[in-house]
Amino acid sequence: MALVEISGVNKHFGDFQALKDITMSIEEGEVIVVIGPSGSGKSTLCRAINRLETFESGSITIDGKELPEEGKELARLRADVGMVFQSFNLFAHKTILENVTLGPIKVRKQSKSVAEKRAMELLERVGVEHQASKYPAQLSGGQQQRVAIARSLAMDPKVMLFDEPTSALDPEMINEVLDVMTGLAKSGMTMVVVTHEMGFARKAADRVIFMADGELVEQATPEEFFTNPQSGRAKDFLSKIL
Ligand code: ADP
Ligand code: MG
């Protein structure tokens, strides 16, 4: 069984079907880049994977376990799925170090000293260790997004989801975040990355998933996908962005 198994997932918002019978599996250590036009269901799929969004039918398992819809068990299992969004969502009134230690202390029941030691290692890994005692507003967007990545990693997730992590950043800060993500990909982390950064897709993805109108239309290696897209919708999308 793959680390993440998505099977026959359907999701409506009212009459509108945002996910249409999505089935896919993600192997441990695999890096998947999800691309597709705006409104194609990419964010909804990410949110369904960690149950920020419910769905009507189908199932999603992480390491063989289905996430319950609510309750204590959900918080614990959800911690296995790290998520980094377009907006960094750091706690404004907590320091960078506190932002990273909060989850491990509350959810993982780590002692403060253990959590802080690990947080400093992670902040160093993403290159913001010197900002540990500052507050989020004192950091650049690129630094804040790197803290958000460190904060997710502090929970020791089994899989990391990134939903357009660089699209709110000034251009000069995009690469510093993509470099951290590339390093993470190389380290063997299982990742699902929604992005318009095709350079990252070519460099880091094992597999590209192309979504359109709530459907998983194509999946292929980046090489195959970018040189020889199969569907009209993928060809059309690529002609607009490349
Ligand atoms: P993407 O991330 O690919 O741009 P989304 O997953 O955000 O697409 O959205 C897919 C579709 O579902 C869009 O048409 C969007 O308007 C719709 N949608 C998403 N969230 C909601 C919601 N909470 N209520 C109603 N419609 C929604
Ligand atoms: Mg989206």
TrEMBL record:
EC number in record: 7.4.2.1
InterPro entries assigned: AAA+_ATPase, ABC_ATPase_HisP-typ, ABC_transporter-like_ATP-bd, ABC_transporter-like_CS, MetN_ABC_transporter-like, P-loop_NTPase
Cell compartments where the protein resides: Cell membrane
Alphabetically ordered keywords of this record: Amino-acid transport, ATP-binding, Cell membrane, Membrane, Nucleotide-binding, Transport
Keyword Glycoprotein among record annotations: no
Example GO molecular function: ATP hydrolysis activity
Gene3D superfamilies the UniProt entry points to: P-loop containing nucleotide triphosphate hydrolases
Example of a GO cellular component annotation carried by this entry: plasma membrane
Domain ABC transporter, chain residue ranges per copy: 4-238
Keyword Cell membrane listed: yes
Catalytic activities: a polar amino acid(out) + ATP + H2O = a polar amino acid(in) + ADP + phosphate + H(+)
Membrane topology type: Peripheral membrane protein
Family: Belongs to the ABC transporter superfamily.
Record-given protein name: ABC-type polar-amino-acid transporter
Native species: Dietzia psychralcaliphila
